[in-house]
Amino acid sequence: MENQNSATKVMLMYGAILAGLSVLINLINYSFGNIYQPHWSIGVVSFILLIGIIIYGLKTFKDGNNGFMTLGQAIKIGLGITLISAIIGIIYQLIFSNVIEPDFYAKMAEYQEQVMMEKFPDMPEEQLEKALEMTKKFSSPGMIAAFALGGSLLIGLIISLIAGLIMKKEETAF
Fold it and tell me: How many CA atoms lie within 13 A of 51 on its CB side?
């Protein structure tokens, strides 16, 4: 039988830890001036942290549940950790883009335009404008939040599924 309170505590605690570390990484990246073009290592470190924290959260739950955990529990806890982290991350992004760096989206649009012009110097002006218009639609705070939440949950599901398949141990009827 699942210890509901333990699952909730694990989701909240590890979701908050993951969010805190993600915010810290973003603030460090911002302090180095790489917010518009982060180094690839930022993504790798963030992904490793996501995997590690979900696995450690699942291990914590399993240890507190007499060594038992079903695949369903693993998926639920992994998604819970990811959801808590994503919600806190979205709140941080809103604070960042409205308080810390109020012209973030405008600067991001300028940076994207510059990159497109460098990568596609022969692109007709009309096509470039259409591409930039489409980019702006997908760069709104609401769209970014939706993609962040959906992407986080998808990745969390995959990690939880794999970890759950490896770590599951169900109680027998005996």
Answer: 10
pTM of the model: 0.86
Measured in Å, how far apart are the chain's first and last C-alpha atoms?
14
Residue pair 96/26 in contact by the 8 Å Cβ criterion: yes
How far is the C-alpha of 73 from the C-alpha of 38, rounded, in Å? 35
The predicted-structure confidence for 44-94, as pLDDT tens digits, reads as follows 999 999 999 999 999 999 999 989 999 999 999 999 999 999 999 999 999
Q: Is 119 exposed, middle or buried (0-12, 13-18, 19+ CB in 10 A)?
A: exposed
Query: DSSP letter at 170?
Result: P
Extents of the domains making up the chain:
4-101+152-167
Q: Which residues contact 50 (CB under 8 A, 6 or more apart)?
A: 18, 82, 85, 155, 156, 159
Q: Is 116 helix (H, G, I), strand (E, B) or coil?
A: helix
pLDDT tens digit sequence for 122-162:
878 888 788 878 877 777 788 889 999 999 999 999 999 99
C-alpha distance from residue 158 to each of 21, 59, 63, 102, 152 (Å): 21, 17, 22, 34, 10
